[in-house]
Amino acid sequence: MKTKLLYAKDITATLQINEAADILKNGGLVAVPTETVYGLAASALNEKAVANIFKAKGRPNDNPLIVHIADFSELDNIVAEVSDLAKECMDAFWPGPFTAVLPKKDIIPNAVSGGLNTVAVRMPANAVTAEIIKKSGLPLAAPSANTSGAPSPSTPYHVIEDLSGKIDAIVVSGDCEVGVESTVVSFAVNPPRLLRPGGITVEQLKELIPDLVIDPAVTAEPEKGVKVASPGMKYKHYSPKANTVMVAGSEQAFADFCNKNQDIDLALCFDEDIPLLKIPYISLGKKADHSKQAELLFSALRDIDKRKSKGAVIHAPTKEGMGLAVYNRLIRAVGFKVIEL
Ligand code: TXA
Ligand code: MG
């Protein structure tokens, strides 16, 4: 299949926006920009189109998709009930990097929900994609537009690398500002539960949901045989092909570990580590700048392989603010191999 590139810098690109909407109405697959990562969109109401998403990504069928809307009025068509607390969070965080898991209506096919009786819903902030959703008149199912298991796509080039030839079109717009995927909160349980940290921080959520439960899988490997609340959390994910390990400790301890270990040829580190390192490195910026780390994260993980590293060491971020989202992606990228120094 030849993948068409539709260049749409902003909403003045009406021809490209209309073409993307038409492809979606006809059951095709289109990668679209969002403020978090690029998404691979198809009509959430078209089972065949949804099945093609799983095929193009090589995604396990039991891992459900997020449904994207552009208007609050769409919500009633797809979810059975919205609690007051869920509504408050939507009002506060939409459009934006926040996803609410709610009881689903029958119109949402099981293929979208992975057989669960809930559906994840998000209203993305990207203006081009909001326009595409409105023009298509459809709720759009869209996972991240990467090959399943690979780092998520925070630039259009990442999408081209992974999905060229496998989907109908890619809407090429700018790089994603947030850089990691949305925060996923389940309101299908009481109290609500954080399933995936992301662009909206725990600190922000707790202002509205003081008794928010943090799912243990956010910061640790789910125990074997225990059913996870969010199927996506049980898979190794975001992984470079190189051997990678994460190390938590001071700048000096991290540098000593990198410099003395024969099998390590690359460090993924912070600016503060650079003066101490004697091996090549990729920096995620300043240790305290968690937003910057999120923005650079997926490009950096892809660069580990582009640099043909055989063994890379990642310096663990702290878990405050957006740091929790960065930590959550990194423990999956290293297959939960974390060394505390
Ligand atoms: O920022 C984002 O959320 C991006 C952009 C494209 O919107 N999308 C995204 O989708 O990250 P995806 O498919 O890569 O991740 C969706 C996550 C998975 O971990 C999945 O298991 C979880 O959300 N999820 C989806 N529906 C769910 C449900 N009904 N219950 C629990 N978890 C669900
Ligand atoms: Mg994904």
Task: Please tell me about this protein's structure.
This protein is about 30% helix and about 20% strand. A hairpin with a 6-residue loop joins strand 2 (about 30) and strand 3 (about 40-45). It contains eleven helices and 16 strands. The model has no long low-confidence stretch (mean pLDDT about 95). The termini are far apart. It binds threonylcarbamoyladenylate (TXA) and magnesium ion. Threonylcarbamoyladenylate binds near residues 39, 116 and 181. Threonylcarbamoyladenylate binds near residues 39, 64, 97, 142 and 184.
| Order of the strands making up the biggest sheet | 1-8-2-3-7-4-6-5-9-10-11
E-strand count? 16
- In total, how many domains does the architecture comprise? 2
Distinct bound molecules: threonylcarbamoyladenylate, magnesium ion
Q: Overall pLDDT, averaged?
A: 96
**Largest pleated sheet:** 11 strands, mixed
CATH topology of the largest domain: DHBP synthase
Helix/strand order: EHEEHEHHEHEHEHEEEHEEHEEHEHE
Summarize the structure in short.
This protein has 341 residues and is of the alpha/beta class. It has helices at residues 14-25, 47-57, 75-78, 84-93, 110-113, 127-136, 156-163, 202-208, 251-260, 290-306, 323-333; strands spanning 4-7, 30-32, 39-43, 66-68, 98-103, 118-122, 140-141, 169-172, 183-186, 193-196, 213-214, 243-248, 266-269, 281-283, 311-315, 338-340.
Topology:
Elements: E1 4-7, H1 14-25, E2 30-32, E3 39-43, H2 47-57, E4 66-68, H3 75-78, H4 84-93, E5 98-103, H5 110-113, E6 118-122, H6 127-136, E7 140-141, H7 156-163, E8 169-172, E9 183-186, E10 193-196, H8 202-208, E11 213-214, E12 243-248, H9 251-260, E13 266-269, E14 281-283, H10 290-306, E15 311-315, H11 323-333, E16 338-340
Parallel strand pairs: 1-8, 2-8, 4-6, 5-9, 10-11, 12-15, 12-16, 13-14, 13-15
Antiparallel strand pairs: 2-3, 3-7, 4-7, 5-6, 9-10
Helix pairs in contact: 1-6, 10-11
Magnesium ion is lined by residues 143-144, 152.
